[in-house]
Each structure stands twice: as C-alpha cells, then as structure tokens.
Amino acid sequence: MRLNIVLRYIGLILLLNAAFLLLSACVSLLNGMDTAFYPLLQSFLLTAILGAFPLIFVQGGEQISSSEGYGVVVGAWLMSCLMCMLPSGAANSRWPTHGSKAFRASRRPGLRR
After folding, report:
1. Do 47 and 14 touch, CB atoms closer than 8 A?
2. For residue 51, which of 13, 92, 105 has the smallest C-alpha distance?
3. Is 112 helix (H, G, I), strand (E, B) or coil?
4. Predicted TM-score (pTM) of this structure
C-alpha cells in the first residue's frame, strides 16, 4: 500500500470538510456572530491547514488499489470525526446535567419518575 496516495486523498477530503466548516461559520456570522462563530472558524483553519499539507508535499498517483481505497475511507472517517469534533472542545461546552435548565427543558412533561 502506498501511503503517499492515501494521505493525499485524505487531505482532499479534509479540505472538503473545511469547506463545510467554513459554511457553518458563515451561517453563524449571518445569525449575528453567535458563540459558535469563533470555534467554527478555528476548526476551519486547522482543518484546512492539515488538509493542504498532503496536497503540497505529497505527490499523487493515477490508480489506487482496493487496500489503498480502504485506507482512504478509514483515515478520512477518523480525521473527519476528529476535526469536526473540535468546535465543541474549543467552545468549552458542557453536556447538560440533571440540575441544569437545558436538561429539564428537554424532558417531556408526561414522563415522570
């Protein structure tokens, strides 16, 4: 398996993810610069930089084998999950707990314990 081809295609997919993160940041900007704008913008920049490195420094090839295709799919899924997880970590968001208003608002009134 040629690792350079796998990394190059993963870089292309990361650039596609970066475009969608930029689109999300633009939507956040149009909604009055809500709290998601800066984490999305930071995630876009990091994802775009990591996606551009393989395209700049790695030569591509014409044909890929099935094992290289599997490597691209697995690597792209893992990197996409890691890169798109960044906005929640950058915003220092917390999951709603049992005592928070968000948790109580999400419960249906008919469900009593």
Report:
1. yes
2. 13
3. coil
4. 0.71
